[in-house]
Amino acid sequence: MSNYHIKHLEEYYQVYRKSVRNPEAFWEEIAEEHFLWRKKWDNVLSWDFKKPEVKWFEGAKLNITENCLDRHLATRGDKVAILFEPNDPKEEAQHITYRDLYHRVNQFANVLKSKGIKKGDRVCIYLPMIPELAISLLACARIGAIHSVVFAGFSATALATRINDSDCKMVITSDGSYRGKKTIDLKCIVDEALEDCNGVESVLVAKRIHSECNMKEGRDEWLQPLLDAASDQLTATVMDAEDPLFILYTSGSTGMPKGMVHTTAGYMVYSAYTFKNVFQYRENDVYWCTADIGWITGHSYIVYGPLANGATSVMFEGVPSYPDYGRFWEIVEKHKVSQFYTAPTAIRALAKEGVEHVEKHDLSSLKVLGTVGEPINEEAWHWYDDNIGKRRAPIVDTWWQTETGGIMITPIPYSTPTKPTYATLPFMGIQPALMDEQGKEIKGNQVDGRLCIKFPWPSIARTIWGNHQRYKETYFSAYENMYFTGDGALRDEVGYYRITGRVDDVIIVSGHNLGTAPIEDAINEHPAVAESAIVGFPHDVKGNALYGYVTLKETGESRNHDNLRKEINQIITEQIGPIAKLNKIQFTNGLPKTRSGKIMRRILRKIASKDTSNLGDTSTLLNPECVQEIMDNAL
Ligand code: 7RM
Predict the structure, then answer these.
(1) Are 310 and 276 in contact (CB under 8 A)?
(2) Which helix (H) or strand (E) holds 627?
(3) Spacing, Cα 475 to ligand 1 middle (Å)
(4) Is residue 297 lining ligand 1, measured as CB closer than 6 Å?
(5) 623 pocket-lining for ligand 1 (C-beta < 6 Å)
(6) In the list 240, 420, 489, 594, which could disulfide-bond 451, CB 3.0-4.6 Å?
(7) What is the pLDDT of residues 291-321, one digit of tens each?
(8) Residue 610: CB atoms within 10 Å
(9) pLDDT band of 1, cuts 50, 70, 90
(10) Does residue 423 line the site of ligand 1, with CB under 6 A?
């Protein structure tokens, strides 16, 4: 796939202006040139943010796996598609070529078919970062089944909620996973989840850790024997451009996680085109994104974007700290990684361990460094630039969301001059706007506001599974005719964007988005708890950590507070997962409330951040007296 070879900022602006002057013509040209279609579209774009409804390449027919696999066979059959690096460095890496991958996807897809999975059925994938994970996504896509990957760090309760919300017929899992020194019995978690899931007919189990697992007769089967018996040939199911490709859950500020629905053609075009340009991928490069495929970053930039470009994509099973903090750099050296894409929380964690882990390794293969998931602080940016990129490899600070499907605001390496902590400029076709709280657009530079997008791009999520009304309310109701991101941003004197963080009740902890409401709901299930409020506070490695204010039903010292803290975190672990555990829990006599009964999180946020110089006006609160008490006992 060629790109625009944007070499200077002036060139970026030329292409960018063209892309926003006529987005339909721009994306049509890219779609024409770079992809394999069974039939081309009748109409490039129709949209209405009021409904809301967005359709790209309507009438087109395709299969995304033909773009990721079949079309590379003639020219890249022996090229490595997925380079699997296991948790244990002593275990050999696997070099899965495009031809191997094609055969393995076909076998897997044939197994799915034999189990009765048809176009449009939902399949839940709950797997660690092993090749079967990437293969299972593609196998679903090959036959038109809608995959719903659930990150394998989520608890049984969280898994069950997601399986039921999208009515999955099948779960694909493994006996367990390796995470550094630990092993986790994933199949047991699935068994527990399935006690509450009546719609699941079959469970396929990959073997990874060779643990004993209970296999339920008539429901559970080992994957490998089925694959061995399956044909490696299968004609891909022809899909419509707007047929759903996958569902991926993301936390909202309230209620259930939202099953974001991405469709086929637009997602393919945008993930592939951004991959090529943002990482400046060249034919012999080895690209590595450290995300888990359980998140959107892994979907778009480990699997679909790279494979649609015929790239070599590294897939790493382990953690950055095992066997020691040099593991990432050891892998970069071993596989001569050219593009490296990770999260600020990983950078901060590694920076803390010192440069001696970096200096042992030859990082001269690196050409582009990426960051994603949360705002990167200046210190981490410079550490990355100085010690990893050696000021040679530009940093692309890429801002985007599960909902956007692909990178939205980013530098173009070797073209956009970078600026620490700035995601810089909109990608082709992206029209950002900053809005004030009254709903007016803030024009000009050196301003800040709420980040919205004015015009559709090909990979915008089309709906929330089963709840279009919520999709409308969450993204299209705050500002007329705009997609609202939930983020705040500022625009500097040259028009560069810096994302300042969420303006809603989503807190990003170590790059994981957590809604406060589900955590509070979990805490409130503890029999001793009357009510609770969660806020984020700055943390030097995690970016944010969670601070819980908990009011007990019976005050007084009747219960041991340390035990209660353990029990509360235990409930959170069971209901959501260990990523949502609270760093600090303060027991309070009451929580500050407005007269309409809403908890004033703004005040709680300031207290948790030890920033109490200006709490604002607290006199209008229903219970102003509790503020002093909370401040006096702050942790
Ligand atoms: C890709 C991804 C989305 C939220 C988003 C932001 C935050 C992501 C950046 C960032 C500052 C960045 N999808 N975010 N990238 N904030 N700079 N480069 O992370 O759905 O999991 O999260 O993440 O708040 O709204 S996500």
Answers:
(1) no
(2) helix 625-632
(3) 15
(4) yes
(5) no
(6) 489
(7) 999 999 999 999 999 999 999 999 999 999 9
(8) 11
(9) very low
(10) yes
